């Protein structure tokens, strides 16, 4: 570390590394009980840097605060980012203490981001002929690379140069800013141009040279969605460029010549390390002689053992350097003795991540091919069970599935060992089919749900996406090992070595995600939501999926034939209206008929040049009075019911004539469940066809179906949340809410309200929940927009609290980026700051509705968690079969049906305590329609 005439300045991105270390390392505490995992990782990195770097000058750069000049340019910049996790906050100051203990300058400047300081120091050292190495993997700093400025990824210890930048952005570093301005950055709320991704952005910049050149050329480009977006969002792109371009002229708080590398004062450093409880670092750095007397160290070690058991774990599971354990080097477990060792390791650790590999995507029919376990970051294994091997690599010795399950059963049932899954419901059902009853697997955690309760609507919850987001790691993909297209092979035919790399990594990533996500639960105030609703719901849904519901095959076959006959008649009618035959199912042919041949107005061509004919286009034509699109819409509705339900249900039914839908727990923004194969959420409720489909869902012989449906739950939540006395009174007294609303809004005595006036009030009541506009209400009621606006204004005049509630939700979404249900569920609203008025207004409607729809989802989930135990405690045999929005469906013996209905009603009505009563309507029947 000798000084040279031309300085080599090493700049450490301290703020960026704190977060990387925090999420990469397991929880650790100091002897004083303070969280220190990020401090430990940072200290390791700094120690290694001082040993190995070749710089003459060194500084660690920190962020001074969240508010910078970029917030003045664009208030939404980074505004959606949540506060730092509770366990991380005390570590910021300790990391600065670590920097001082190592005798390294720590630099920050209010009003500027760490990246701006790094850029300014890099340019300043260039100006005096020196070189600069930036220790960071932050993509925003890649614009600085070149002319003596380089980067090193601190986690991978790999250089980042021109080749790496071009691989990531498709351009040289001097054009990175322009690419980023076009593509935007959702993690920082940089808007960019919607629809422009990395490949398109780099292609445009390589073709035109600069952002301004691209925007200037846009009006002359071929008509396309890309052209429209570039023109419409040109200003957003210019603002984005100002946001992503680093400031290179920030006043330097410390002069470069004051940043020369200095040796740490060993007594000071040893005392600080000892105070933190980093015994292993004291030993590795050869500083034991500076850390006090032997007796004192022994006493301190004894004290630490009682309050800090995780450092020993970290010493064995985490590399002593800043680099996190690699995602490689996993073990293939082929014998009972080897698996027993992993079971013992899991028991010693007190937790393990578990993942299964199967020969199919349906857990109710898939066979288990292998199991992976992880007991610490970087420590994972794969247990192949049914691999067939290849000529080049035979499968070799494998445990049988039965033997593996036998060895794992005690671990899975061990209450002292936490089992961590990603999408636990899937793996629980896989284990169940393999002979391990999923009700015996406890306790469990689910990283998908840990993320979902903190970020619904912000991003997807798949493992690969979460890994990239929280760990900065892209896992091996399924297609990497199985291939694609004609070359795709079943997982059982994947070579065991490749399967081990893939499957064990999944378990490893799942465990690391748990370490990253679980500590932030309390800080984000969603621990109760997760532990009381989402986590215990997984086995409830698994049981429902396993049980399924019976169908009447004969009825479905008759219905399918009827739909086909009616569709044929409708096609003849459509052809007559069009003047010639054509394929009604072909959007292209329909577009040619409507817009080329009939010359109807309002058509728009898509990117491929074909006319758009989706339902919104056809509905606009219907509103203009055209008959053909109305007939096509009716035909499409019948075709959808036939393909989605009558035909599909017959294919999907198992040999016992039951269908088993799959409930998706982490798809919607609001917490609502969705279902697929079959999707039961979209069966029409009030049409003849929908009723006939429901009639085909039947009770088994000697059984009855019970439907339990919350009555007007979202309106009740609105009355409660907005604190509307008149609505609360109506619900409390059991009045007809729509009649009461009509009386209040239109000034008519309740006894004089006719059906049309009640219908108007009902449309307003439900429309308000979804932020309906005057135009939307006018279309729904068949009145003028002016008259609809009068109705809405009269409604708000009578119930001003509702307008106040709506504005509170909009403001909450603007300020936080999300809204909250009454149970603390975060529903993110990403488009709330969108420059496009239509998208922004849609987001505002989401903000108004999400707490109500999400609150309803929370309430019915609370009931679902309580019901199985309540039914069992009552000695009843009923089984919960389906959940569709606000309705639950049960099957029970005929003699128990009245008791079950009463019990279900009681549990559901008391699932939450509001200022208005929850009302549940129940029905009993031989089929779903009859019960509903």
Automatic annotation (TrEMBL):
<comment type="similarity">
    <text>Belongs to the DNA polymerase type-A family.</text>
</comment>
<keyword id="KW-0548">Nucleotidyltransferase</keyword>
<dbReference type="InterPro" id="IPR001098">
    <property type="entry name" value="DNA-dir_DNA_pol_A_palm_dom"/>
</dbReference>
<dbReference type="GO" id="GO:0003887">
    <property type="term" value="F:DNA-directed DNA polymerase activity"/>
</dbReference>
<dbReference type="Pfam" id="PF01367">
    <property type="entry name" value="5_3_exonuc"/>
</dbReference>
<dbReference type="InterPro" id="IPR018320">
    <property type="entry name" value="DNA_polymerase_1"/>
</dbReference>
<dbReference type="InterPro" id="IPR002562">
    <property type="entry name" value="3'-5'_exonuclease_dom"/>
</dbReference>
<dbReference type="Pfam" id="PF02739">
    <property type="entry name" value="5_3_exonuc_N"/>
</dbReference>
<dbReference type="InterPro" id="IPR020046">
    <property type="entry name" value="5-3_exonucl_a-hlix_arch_N"/>
</dbReference>
<comment type="subunit">
    <text>Single-chain monomer with multiple functions.</text>
</comment>
<protein>
    <recommendedName>
        <fullName>DNA polymerase I</fullName>
        <ecNumber>2.7.7.7</ecNumber>
    </recommendedName>
</protein>
<keyword id="KW-0235">DNA replication</keyword>
<keyword id="KW-0378">Hydrolase</keyword>
<dbReference type="InterPro" id="IPR029060">
    <property type="entry name" value="PIN-like_dom_sf"/>
</dbReference>
<dbReference type="Pfam" id="PF00476">
    <property type="entry name" value="DNA_pol_A"/>
</dbReference>
<comment type="function">
    <text>In addition to polymerase activity, this DNA polymerase exhibits 3'-5' and 5'-3' exonuclease activity.</text>
</comment>
<dbReference type="Pfam" id="PF01612">
    <property type="entry name" value="DNA_pol_A_exo1"/>
</dbReference>
<feature type="domain" description="DNA-directed DNA polymerase family A palm">
    <location>
        <begin position="690"/>
        <end position="896"/>
    </location>
</feature>
<feature type="domain" description="3'-5' exonuclease">
    <location>
        <begin position="330"/>
        <end position="522"/>
    </location>
</feature>
<dbReference type="InterPro" id="IPR020045">
    <property type="entry name" value="DNA_polI_H3TH"/>
</dbReference>
<keyword id="KW-0239">DNA-directed DNA polymerase</keyword>
<dbReference type="InterPro" id="IPR002298">
    <property type="entry name" value="DNA_polymerase_A"/>
</dbReference>
<dbReference type="InterPro" id="IPR012337">
    <property type="entry name" value="RNaseH-like_sf"/>
</dbReference>
<dbReference type="InterPro" id="IPR043502">
    <property type="entry name" value="DNA/RNA_pol_sf"/>
</dbReference>
<feature type="domain" description="5'-3' exonuclease">
    <location>
        <begin position="7"/>
        <end position="262"/>
    </location>
</feature>
<dbReference type="InterPro" id="IPR008918">
    <property type="entry name" value="HhH2"/>
</dbReference>
<keyword id="KW-0269">Exonuclease</keyword>
<keyword id="KW-0238">DNA-binding</keyword>
<keyword id="KW-0234">DNA repair</keyword>
<dbReference type="InterPro" id="IPR036279">
    <property type="entry name" value="5-3_exonuclease_C_sf"/>
</dbReference>
<dbReference type="InterPro" id="IPR019760">
    <property type="entry name" value="DNA-dir_DNA_pol_A_CS"/>
</dbReference>
<keyword id="KW-0227">DNA damage</keyword>
<dbReference type="InterPro" id="IPR036397">
    <property type="entry name" value="RNaseH_sf"/>
</dbReference>
<keyword id="KW-0540">Nuclease</keyword>
<dbReference type="InterPro" id="IPR002421">
    <property type="entry name" value="5-3_exonuclease"/>
</dbReference>
<keyword id="KW-0808">Transferase</keyword>
């Amino acid at each position: 570390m000798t000084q040279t005439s031309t300085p080599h300045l090493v700049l450490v991105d301290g703020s960026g590394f704190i977060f990387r270390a925090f999420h990469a390392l397991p929880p650790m505490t100091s002897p004083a009980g303070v969280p220190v995992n990020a401090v430990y990782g940072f200290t390791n990195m700094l120690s290694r840097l001082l040993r190995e770097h070749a710089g003459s000058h060194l500084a660690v750069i920190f962020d001074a605060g969240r508010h910078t000049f970029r917030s003045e340019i664009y208030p939404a910049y980074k505004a959606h980012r949540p506060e730092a996790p509770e366990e991380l906050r005390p570590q910021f100051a300790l990391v600065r203490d670590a920097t001082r203990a190592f005798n390294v300058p720590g630099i920050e400047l209010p009003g500027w981001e760490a990246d701006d300081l790094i850029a300014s120091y890099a340019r300043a050292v260039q100006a005096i002929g020196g070189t600069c190495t930036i220790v960071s993997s932050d993509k925003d700093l890649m614009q600085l690379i070149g002319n003596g400025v380089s980067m090193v990824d601190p986690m991978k210890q790999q250089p980042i140069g021109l080749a790496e930048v071009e691989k990531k952005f498709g351009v040289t570093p001097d054009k990175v800013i322009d690419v980023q301005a076009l593509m935007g950055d959702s993690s920082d709320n940089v808007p960019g141009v919607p629809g422009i991704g990395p490949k398109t952005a780099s292609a445009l910049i390589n073709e035109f040279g600069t952002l301004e050149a691209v925007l200037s050329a846009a009006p002359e480009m071929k008509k396309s969605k890309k052209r429209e977006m570039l023109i419409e969002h040109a200003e957003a792109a210019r603002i984005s460029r100002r946001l992503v371009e680093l400031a290179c002229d920030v006043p330097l708080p410390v002069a470069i010549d004051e940043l020369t590398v200095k040796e740490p004062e060993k007594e000071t450093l040893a005392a600080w390390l000892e105070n933190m409880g980093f015994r292993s670092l004291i030993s590795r750095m050869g500083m034991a002689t500076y850390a006090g007397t032997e007796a004192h160290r022994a006493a301190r070690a004894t004290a630490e053992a009682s309050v800090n058991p995780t450092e020993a774990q970290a010493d064995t599971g985490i590399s002593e350097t800043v680099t996190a354990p690699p995602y490689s080097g996993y073990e293939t477990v082929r014998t009972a003795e080897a698996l027993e060792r992993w079971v013992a390791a899991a028991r010693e650790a007190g937790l393990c991540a578990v993942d299964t590999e199967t020969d199919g995507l349906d857990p109710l029919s898939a066979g288990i091919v292998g199991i992976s376990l992880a007991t610490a970051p970087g420590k994972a294994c794969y247990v192949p069970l049914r691999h067939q091997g290849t000529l080049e690599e035979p499968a070799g010795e494998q445990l049988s599935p039965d033997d593996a399950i036998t060895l794992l059963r005690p671990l899975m049932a061990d209450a002292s060992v936490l089992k961590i899954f990603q999408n636990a419901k899937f793996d629980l059902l896989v284990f169940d089919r393999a002979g391990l009853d999923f009700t015996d697997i406890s306790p469990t955690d689910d990283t998908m749900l840990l993320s979902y309760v903190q970020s619904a609507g912000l991003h997807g919850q798949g493992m690969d996406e979460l890994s990239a987001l929280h760990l900065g790691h892209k896992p091996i993909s399924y297609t990497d090992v199985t291939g694609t297209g004609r070359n795709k092979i079943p997982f059982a035919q994947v070579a065991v070595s490749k399967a081990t790399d893939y499957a064990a990594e999944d378990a490893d990533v799942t465990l690391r995600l748990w370490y990253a996500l679980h500590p932030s639960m309390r800080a984000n105030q969603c621990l109760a939501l997760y532990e009381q609703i989402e986590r215990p719901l997984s086995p409830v849904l698994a049981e429902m999926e396993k049980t399924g519901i019976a169908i009447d095959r004969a009825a479905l076959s008759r219905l399918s034939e009827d739909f086909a006959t009616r569709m044929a008649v409708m096609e003849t009618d459509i052809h007559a209206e069009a003047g010639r035959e054509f394929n009604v199912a072909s959007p292209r042919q329909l577009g040619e008929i409507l817009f080329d041949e009939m010359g109807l107005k309002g058509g728009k061509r898509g990117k491929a040049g074909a006319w758009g004919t989706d339902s919104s286009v056809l509905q606009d034509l219907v509103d203009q009075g055209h008959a053909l699109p109305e007939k096509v819409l009716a035909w499409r509705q019948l075709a959808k019911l036939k393909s989605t339900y009558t035909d599909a249900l017959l294919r999907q039914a198992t040999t016992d004539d039951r269908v088993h839908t799959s409930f998706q727990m982490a798809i919607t923004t609001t917490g609502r469940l969705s279902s697929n194969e079959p999707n039961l959420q979209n069966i029409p409720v009030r049409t003849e066809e929908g009723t006939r489909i429901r009639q085909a869902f039947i009770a088994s012989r000697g059984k009855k179906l019970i439907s339990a449906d919350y009555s007007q739950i979202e309106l009740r939540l609105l009355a409660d949340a907005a604190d509307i006395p008149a609505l609360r009174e109506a619900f409390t007294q059991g009045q007809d809410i729509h009649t009461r609303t009509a009386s209040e809004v239109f000034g008519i005595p309740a006894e004089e309200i006719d059906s049309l006036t009640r219908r108007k009030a009902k449309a307003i009541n439900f429309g308000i929940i979804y932020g309906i506009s005057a135009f939307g209400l006018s279309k729904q009621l068949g009145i003028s927009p002016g008259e609809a606006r009068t109705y809405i204004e009269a409604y708000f005049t009578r119930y001003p609290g509702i307008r106040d509630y709506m504005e509170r939700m909009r403001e909450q979404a603007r300020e936080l980026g999300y809204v909250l249900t009454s149970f603390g569920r975060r529903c993110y609203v990403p488009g709330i700051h969108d420059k496009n008025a239509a998208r922004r207004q849609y987001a505002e409607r989401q903000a108004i509705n999400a707490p109500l729809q999400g609150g309803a989802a929370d309430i019915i989930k609370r009931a679902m968690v309580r019901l199985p135990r309540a039914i069992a405690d009552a000695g009843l045999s009923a089984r919960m079969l389906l959940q569709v929005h606000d309705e639950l469906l049960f099957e029970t013996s005929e003699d128990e049906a009245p008791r079950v209905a009463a019990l279900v009603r009681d549990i559901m009505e008391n699932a939450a305590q509001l200022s208005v009563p929850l009302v549940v309507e129940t029905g009993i029947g031989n089929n779903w329609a009859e019960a509903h």
